[in-house]
């Protein structure tokens, strides 16, 4: 590695990067990242308003489950810009369905049997509309209510208002059904049968040809991760991570092209949690993904970008219990090593 001189500033990242940062690189990285952040904020404001306006115009008679798929990207106007400005860290491991907005006066009920039959691990989230703040949630590792085929309905308590519903299926079955929803005990929204190959469209995104606009949108997040030890941790987390499902913890960091990400997990942690890894390029498109099922795993980053682990409990464990993470500094900048240690209680989970 090039030795530091008087014109260079050594920078050692706690997430595995050892870079020699030249003063001249700061002169263009910081201004470009600032412009990228401004562009992202402007585009997010525009497209989030367009999305809310589009949903608000739907009548309840028109409502049906919307499953993120190739059809969404190709046939829904502005779908890709909306996703890339509201939830850019794609969840490549779950089949994602949404429903709403709908009005609730007294009760919201779900056919939980259809959910349990569709996936080993699942999460249901109720969002207020139009703020999209999380109001209530159900999660497979905490759900213990007894239901029957004859009475499959589970009630989610919410105050009167307008809501949307989101359901994520991990480790899904061959038959994927989004459930019937009963509103106020009488209005029934129909179930939806999803294609088990729904998530194959992520492979198409890997080679998406028109990335310059999205690189301009997300370049700032790459720079934030690069210099994160010099920045507010809360700010970097808020900018990088998406918002969505409770009971999911994120571990994340930056990667340069050609770096090897090495993962080590203690056996106890593997027994208690599922680890879902996704690599993103610096345009925030998914480049590769893997569920980690063995104590060790490694992958070479094909592009500059980032990595994110979604960690979900397998068992009924105390709230706030998550694996520990250590990221030792490697000898040189060619490797990022992440180790997950025995579960312990600490901060509340980060959504998604």
How would you sum up this structure in a few lines?
The protein is an alpha+beta fold and 352 residues long.
List keywords for this structure.
single chain; 352 residues; alpha+beta; Jelly Rolls; five-stranded antiparallel β-sheet; four-stranded antiparallel β-sheet; 21 strands; 26% helix; disordered N terminus; disordered C terminus
Describe this structure in words.
The protein has 352 residues and is an alpha+beta fold. Helix content is 26%, strand content 37%. The strands form 6 sheets. The protein has a 5-stranded antiparallel sheet with strand order 3-4-9-6-7. A hairpin with a 4-residue loop joins strand 16 and strand 17 (286-292). Helix 1 (23-56) crosses helix 3 and helix 1 packs across helix 6. Residues 1-21 and 348-352 have low confidence and may be disordered.
List the helices and strands and how they pair.
Elements: E1 8-12, E2 18-22, H1 23-56, E3 66-67, H2 70-75, H3 79-86, E4 94-104, E5 108-111, H4 112-118, E6 119-128, E7 134-139, E8 153-156, E9 161-172, E10 176-178, E11 181-183, E12 187-189, E13 192-194, H5 201-206, H6 212-226, H7 233-240, E14 249-255, E15 260-265, H8 267-272, E16 273-281, E17 286-292, E18 296-300, E19 305-313, E20 321-326, E21 335-345
Parallel strand pairs: 15-21
Antiparallel strand pairs: 1-2, 3-4, 4-9, 5-8, 5-11, 6-7, 6-9, 10-13, 11-12, 14-19, 15-18, 16-17, 16-19, 20-21
